[in-house]
Amino acid sequence: MAERGAPQLFTIPAHRAFADALADGLLRRFGKDPLAFARGFILLPNNRAIRTISDAFVRASKGGLLLPRLVAIGDPDLDEAAGPFIDSLEGDEPIAPAVDPLRRRMILARLVSEERQRVGEPVDAAEAVRLAGELARTLDQLLVEEVPPRALRDVDVGDGLSQHWERSLRLFEIVLDRWPKERERLGRIDLAERRSLLLRRVARHWRATPPAGFICAAGITGTAPAVAQMLRTVSELPQGMVVLPGLAVDMPDDQWQSLGPHDPDPVTGRRRRAIETHPQFHLKLLLDRMGVARGEFKIWRGGSEHDADPPRSRAIANALAPAEHTRGWTDLPASERRLSKGKGADADIRALEVAVPADEAQAIAIAMRQALEQPGRTAALVTPDRTLGRRVAAHCARWNLAVDDSAGQPLSMLPPGTFLLALAEAAAQGFAPLALLTLLKHPLVMPGEDRPVWLDGVRRLDRALRGPRPAAGLAGIDAHLADESGRDKHLRVAARPGWQAARALLEPIAVAF
Description:
This protein is mainly alpha-helical. Helix content is about 50%, strand content about 5%. Strands 3-2-4-5-1-6 form a six-stranded parallel beta sheet, sandwiched between helices. Strand 4, helix 9 and strand 5 form a beta-alpha-beta unit. Helix 8 (about 190-210) packs parallel to helix 9 (about 225-235) and helix 9 (about 225-235) packs across helix 11 (about 280-290). The protein is globular and about 90 Å long. The N and C termini lie far apart (about 60 Å). The mean pLDDT is about 85.
């Protein structure tokens, strides 16, 4: 067992660009020897962070650079993605693979459907899949916090919610009793459990045999016990360090303690409510689980041209004081309320009031375009509103400005996703005219040179299907187009060639459903 050192703990203030400051600081510490630098590890929260840090190193190096290994501890296949990160684990018994999340959800949906059928409360497939998703989400939360799922049976919710809780618990019994048997049959374990086991195993090996290169855990704010143990281990390695973003090292102690979590009252036994929505709460919980104090953190040495002015951090910290401490706002000096060093508190801050969300999106897009018209400048929109982000991206696309959305796009909004939804809707509705035409007009149906001819046939079919709804299924449309009575006979006759081409593609789908 290697001797532990004092924890090496750092934080990068909120006014600094985290990725660029981290890259600059690591290059200062370890960049003199390029080969030694390449042997280092940087542990990051997810794959998006890997991309961001890689770009920051490119900007900081201003030339060729061998990057250290960047590892996302949130990667579902952590042991495969990490490579040498887990070389020391080869002598251990292998950890069972994780069950695919989609496969688990489908199995849980089957179990839900069977259980509801057994108690005389049947549900359709869509509802069973929805309930399975909720069960899976609850199970993952318990596994991440390392709380045994069976502990839910001992929860006391009081008299007011007891009946509702009992009903919910009966459904969760599926997970408690039947899912472990299904998992054992598959020879797999839950992804959250596998990740926790792997992190604890790596931490144990590193305590015994520290890696030769440096290890930096950066930007990881997850509060799971396994993550906290990993960060504590990294901080005590000879060349290990933990770097957290925006830890409020200057927050007064009374405000810090008011965040919680709180111990039960010795008289009433009740717990004071924690301020879980405060941005510092989860950092405080992480520090508690790591067993370190806020005063042990040092300010990270490193920065970049992308940093804001230091007064901004103080102003943000004061604005985000816990509610019970906001009475001190009126007594703050001007220096504690200023957002920049410029003249006036809002030297580089502008406020815009608009009537409707559409105007908001357009104004933001125009501001971003103006910034990009100036050489060397970049622009970014930070918002939790996904609808606003999509609207701004649509406006920018009108000016041929491609927006790199770091949050990605839902599959249901991309062409393959909309095609799958249209396909499922058409089959579920028995090829009703509206759903059928939506599917046939989709851009992924019959692309290429033959698409104009295809769309011409679909338009004829559209005109022929207007009016009374045909019978369900492909046979219903066949009978409708075969009818030669009425004044619109010529429309049905004109639609037959296009329908025969479409029917040949739809036949396998109709048989499958």
